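Its record is set out here:
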Amino acid sequence: MSTVIIWIGVLLLPLTLYVATGFANLTRARARQWGAPIAEVVRRPRNRGFRAWIGVMADGRRWLDLLFETIFALPIHLFTFAVSVSWFFAGLGGVTFFFWGRFLPPDDTDLIDFVSAWVTNSPLTDLGFGAEATFQFVTGLVLLLTFPFVHHAMARLEILAITAGLAPFEGSGTSAGKARAGDEAGRDPSAAAAASAGLSSPAAAGSSSGSGADSSSGFGTESSAGSGSSAAASLLSRAGSEGWFWLLSIFVAVALVAISWPVTAVAYGVWTVTAMLIAIGQSAALVLAVRMPAAAIVLGVMSSAVGIYATSDSTGLVWPWATTSILALLFLHLIVGLRHSWLHLVILWAASAALGVLSLIAPHAGELSGALANVITTVSLAAGISAVAVVGNLWIRSRARLESERRLSAEELAKRQELEERNRIAQELHDVVAHSMSVISVQATTARYRLPDLDGRSLEEFDSIAGSARQALTEMRGLLAILRGGRDADLAPQPVLDDIPALVASTRGSGAEVELEFAAESAGISATVGLTAFRVVQEGLSNALRHAPGAAVQVTVRPVDEQLWVAVVNGAASNGAHGGGRETAGHGGGPDPLGGDRTGTRHLGGGFGLKGMRERVEALDGTLRVGPTPEGGFEVVATLPTTTP
């Protein structure tokens, strides 16, 4: 029978951990809805079978989820629910008291009667139902008006508790801004960093497959049964986060106040107020120990001293430290040792030992042998818990440093792989695009020598093509240098607002009919805004020439109400092509499989020019409007701030 019970427990315990993790994930999702910085936990696919089912018990994060949901989340949820519901219905009942209060059994002592007697310091007087209904209505109205604030405060309390217990632990480098919390702790750091960089190179794949099996730290993964030491290390590392210390210290502090106060007052005959102050002082020291060890040590030792003095006349009881005082002192040693340096812990232990010796010398009603045994036991337990705390502190710090080194290594690997990918792209650009542009440049430059029968207009056209090709090659060389990560990339001034007339003149050289209305002055306009305006005009002219050949183009650049108004408007294409068909789907009868539309016009773009313009304009908090005109043309209108935001 015992064996059957044990096997049932072995099967139910993993199920309990699964259920606890499910509730914890639900809590994380709800906290993310409220804006808490808690990322989603992603685990590697686990193996199937009984061994994998049992191996769940080695996952430290699941145990912490179980601890959080049972010890912390449940009381907090019950408390916030009770406060919110009670507050709302108390207000609702007070407002409607006039309707249902008449049906209550008659009572000569209404609430308003007690309040009036307490305020006026007079005997109880029956003020009648009208006074009671008015008082209840005002009280209910106040409760309803303050309910949104109370409800928000309860939600904030839950968010703080959830963030403290379920947010990524310190040193993991994981935040809500990252896609998943499991990348740092549950997968190979190098593979996680490579994935975050968007790389898919073979090196990244090999690193991920080659080291993913042995780099798990036990969190965010489905650990196997043989990784118990790794899971224990990760459990201690995650439990060492400040949030968990806040939860544990507050929980123990509340429990100590609830137990120590009545025990000290009833068992030791201490005055109730004094017992309350002793319990609150010992509990507050535990909370202060998370951030302020010096204040916690002073408050903890002083509270113990007051407790020893207040109970010095007791006989036959645990003295000088009561049982609750011993527990408070041990928890204080544990928190200080885990959170802070060993020097604070030595000072706390020495002060506790000195206090115990002084209590033996000072007058007291108990026997010396019992008091001496109490002091020796307390000091020995404090020394033992201090040793455990120091070891745990060293373990936590070593794990944090290890995680930091892994993260740095992953970042360096991601940078190297990114550089390799950029070099590959640069090589492809050099082999394909730069080669083609070089051929165009050479053919256009040598046209006057290879084709002696060309007229003057054709020669000018070939010279313009050769100049554009050379300029494109120059810009391509700069782009390749940047992609390769070189520091010797050519630096050239970016176009500014005053370069727009030259751009229009160059476009006119291709035979296009372009009118320019340029009324802006670059003196009061930032370089970034000028560059964006130049790129908008450049893209607008390029699209007009490509998709509406032969159409007249109107370019307007002028300031309007402390903003820069940039417009490129073209008419309908003279050759029958739809003027609004540039880089937009649905114009010109729709695209064909070869990239053209039903009118025969080939579309070289895919909408990326308009997308780039919109990104540039919106980055400056400007607006962009694109679309067909009533005359059958197309317009691009951008409104930019005169200064960068």
